[in-house]
Specification:
This protein has 396 residues and is α/β, with parallel strands linked by helices. 37% of the residues lie in helices and 29% in strands. It binds 8-demethyl-8-dimethylamino-flavin-adenine-dinucleotide and P-hydroxybenzoic acid.
Length: 396
Amino acid sequence: MSKFNTQVGIIGGGPAGLMLSHLLHQHGINSVILEARSRQYCEERIRAGVLEQGAVDMLRQSGVGARLDREGLRHEGIEIGLNERRYRIPLTELTNGKAVTVYGQHEVVKDLIAQRLKDGGDVRFECSDVSVHAIEGPKPAINFTQNGEEHTLACDYIAGCDGFHGICRPSIPPGILTGYDRTYPFGWLGILAEAPPSLDELVYMHHDRGFALYSMRSPTVTRLYLQCKPDEDVNLWSDDRIWSELFTRLRCKDGWCPTEGKILQKSVTGMRSYVTEPMQFGKLFLAGDAAHIVPPTGAKGMNLAMADVYVLAESLRAFYRDNSNAKLQSYSRVCLRRVWKAQRFSWWMTSLLHRFDDHSPFDNRRQLAELDYVTSSRAAAASLAENYVGLPMELE
Ligand code: RFL
Ligand code: PHB
């Protein structure tokens, strides 16, 4: 068993863990990242695609925005679809110049891994049997195995950035955390297609047969989603069936529909909202999906992860620089204010756009009225836009 130490031990090398390590490095704080998967797996895992203005600013200001600036697609509006028509929400006009940027999460991960390695960072892939110890005491530790060898990493603090199914949250003793949970009676069947986008903006489409989303990744790759059963068997969906359903739900009266192309990847994701409170116990701080998940309708998951680690990095900086743990003590409270607003927005977007089998005729009429309101009232559209581009990052 080999022993070594660092200031902050980070479990998980997704957007949260990598960004945290990068920001800490800029504050002169050492960290080690322990990631269960291989580098290739992390760099190829297709997940989120929409970065809020604040996340883009954070990547740029911390010096990892060069490729994002070259390849990211700035979007100044989104479209809400209803009854074969699209209604534009002018995000930038309604938010004093803010926008979102379409740039795949795996591209963010690639950029951050490259930067950490360039800066001499310690990022360890394919770590197994990761466990946390003595989180209530002054010197917590992480045990793990790499290349068949067991290691102990002693640290001042541990950051649990290991996603929703990680080991950090369950390592907190029973009775400390409260989980707030909501599952939705549907999932998303997502595809990545080798097809140039046929429209420059995302389309969130309400349809009697279920929600559909038109998105993209690059000038040659389209990303599309269909509302489906939560346990839908992806093998029952041939490429022809997927395209036919996408055309049925997305085609508009003006003739617009997505361009068909080779399907590169298909998968089904369940939809869930979950928050744990507090996001910290002893020396263990949870960040990103390890602490909360949202249904993808509001495009908030990766952005919340980035916002958490921004607060955590600033809190750790205050600790090491000023020897004050006041900011660490308020970490959970500060993050949760933003998390709950993103939860509300994600739940609202999900409720607005999906087909609910248990809806009464009254519920259906109310949903249509809400869509009509959002697409015709500037005040309603401004509220959607303000949340979609991202609420301000707060440290207090
Ligand atoms: P991640 O990305 O899950 O990273 C956690 C990392 O921890 C590793 N790990 C462990 N490492 C060591 N030891 C263990 N015991 C470990 N257990 C796990 C994992 O291998 C992994 O590398 O969490 P993080 O960093 O908090 O980032 C969160 C985001 O990944 C997530 O919120 C988003 O992908 C959600 N999401 C979206 N978010 C957005 O902001 N905008 C979007 O447009 C968006 N679209 C989406 C999404 C998620 C989706 N799926 C697949 C759930 C669309 C979809 C379909
Ligand atoms: C995506 O492009 O993957 C995407 C876009 C918007 C969402 C969710 C996912 O709300």
